[in-house]
Protein 1
Amino acid sequence: MDQPRPETTPLWQWSAADLARGIADRTITSREAVTSCLERIEAVNPVLNALVEVSAEEALASADVADQMVAHGRHLGPLHGVPVSIKDNTDEVGHPNTGGVVAHADHVATTDAASTAALRRAGAVLVGRSNVPAFSFRWVTDNELHGRTLNPWDADRTPGGSSGGAAAAVASGMVPVAHGNDIGGSIRYPSFACGLTGLRPTTGRLASSGTDGMDFPLSATLFAVEGPLARCNEDLRLAYAAMLGADSRDAFQAHGATPTPARRPRRIGLVRSVGVADPTPEVDRALDDAAAALRDGGYTVEDVEVPLLAEAYRLWYLLAIEEIRLIRPMMDALGGAGLRTAMDGVYAVAADWWGTAPSTEDYMMGYARRSSLITRLAGLMDGLPYLVMPVSTEQAFRQDADLTGHDESRRQAAAQWSQMAIPLLGFPALAAPTGTAGGLPVGVQVLGRRFDEAGLLDLGAVLEARLGTLTPVDVR
């Protein structure tokens, strides 16, 4: 659907960009914008359970400060006065960072994580914290502390994980943009499931400081990124810009890196399958629609095969899952029965390729192979700078389908091959909606060259100009 006209719609339906402009030129106030979103939260969050903590008084106080800054002619950041949510696995000073775990309900953060601090510096008003699966591990956003988040399109379908609460909040109009993070699809899949656009930046582009007092394994350091979810491309671009900036707590940040010019910048590869799982007819049509939109925008689109992505997908299950094995006893003890069952399925998938006890040599050679795959993909993308592919090979999974047995775990893993391949390689990717099928959203994913987020966002704008946006939606 078309973007709503700000002058005829309630403020919770405005884009973040329109809110920021209206606040800056004093057409509206931040307090009015925040109040409208809080009213929307009060109306729909009891149904969806997307935000597990709502900080109404704190948000209104921040909005008043934002309005005072406007009145005094102070410098304004890109999200000045705009309501935003923070994912409940990320530190926000004075608020519990629970990660959806009962035992962590009282883990109150004493500092802001790098991403939270960046959003504050950009002027964002933090209105609440979005739900996650326990330990942010499943494709379903459910936990024993806060309960289940529903997809605003269909309560029987997952809103995705692990940024499922963020996606449901944005899609239903609670906030125009939300913070997320992604180690294996946690920005891109919820965006896809809820009809949003989401950006997984290049590893190292946006600062990440994790959780205060915790040491993270190498895979989490190299595969996980922070990033935004939004209803439209302009807001995604704005939120990404707001999250830029160096932070000394990130040992691997490379925020100033830029790509060399592509040899054929208007050439795009279309990857329908890598031999793991073929897209359903609905997803295949989404790929066709995206290809047609890009051709209409002046790009050359051609079907290509990139089998190294299948190898990267399998390799993720060695490097990430073996490191999680070290903390699995703690996750089993604290995460609840659903998480234990889901993890059993994930380890069954990993064992199909790597056995039940991979060796230290397997692990070491896995990282060596990862470097080779990164180099090969970078070489391919010098002449083919963008690859369009499925986010998932099927539309949003049914709630708790991952708990029905190892065969279903294998099927879901195959459908999500791109969700694991891309984090392992560290390249940026954009999820973009293309329309609906059977009452559910559908979309595509665009893979870009490292540090070419600007190019990805430009392609997202081309897709949106021709295919439109899908949200906010009425809660169903």
Note: The mean pLDDT is 96.
Protein 2
Amino acid sequence: MKVCFPISEDLGIQSVIYGHFNSAPFFLLVDSETRETQTVSNCDPHEPFAGCNPFGALKAYEIDGIIAAGMGDSVLQAMNLCGHRVFEAQSEHLIENMELFLEKKLPESEIQNSAAAGRCSDGEEDTNESGSGGCDHDHEH
């Protein structure tokens, strides 16, 4: 099985999960059987300077599951529509979450209707830590 994790630095299976899926600098694809990894830059390969684009980055890969610490409702809905199951990370360590995933102990992410409930803005997925639009990392990977 291929499992996808958002990361900021590629340390293989020792990587730490990045806090927000949509703006992660990279995705680490891990084969759960062989533990082989592949790093994918979070941008559309055809438009690398356009900013974060998890859909463009991952569309060419077959993924059996995504494990993330945070993902907005609209991105979660889109990933589900693309056929990707998304699971809630239980720690920041990729390897711990991989083990929980293989043991079927990770909860599947559900739509929270956060914006409708007033818990975040409608553009939550499109803001960086400073509150401005877009991502806050370099796309010259």
Note: Residues 73-81 form the longest helix (9 residues).
Protein 3
Amino acid sequence: MTAKKVLILDHQQIQQKINRIAHQILEDNFDEKEIILAGVVIRGYKLALRLEKVLKEIADFKITIVKLELEKDSSKLESKIDIPLKECENKVIILVDDVLNSGRTLAYGLGVFLNIPLKKLRSVVLIDRSHKNFPVSPDFVGLELSTILKEHVSVILDEEREDDEVYLK
């Protein structure tokens, strides 16, 4: 028996969420000269690229995109970042991921930046499932979704075919 997929957000609804989050980021950082969007590979990075696209249309500040790779299943923080961490010092960092489930990925992502001086550290998730095992809460959320632990939320971001969707199965 296959699990039934339930569509939660379609392409247009995802874009509306991204637009709203981008405006919230702008409001939170209107007086900044630069922000860094640190996208957690893979879908968090894709989401960061989408946010960058909208922010470039509405904001005057410089936007730097950083690709953040985390070993999510490790019991300790293991990460790779595609720019020297020193370049993030004294800047606004916005950590971006697709789904917040237990909070481990978000906690590890925040941990990457804890040993350097920052102006501000914020986080964005498209979907917050509210099953946190770690004491983290995102600053900007596309959709809060109450689910049971057995359910799985999948985010598909396909730039070429505009085949974006978020579904529950």
Note: The beta strands are 6-10, 34-40, 62-70, 79-81, 92-100, 120-128, 140-144, 153-156, 165-168.
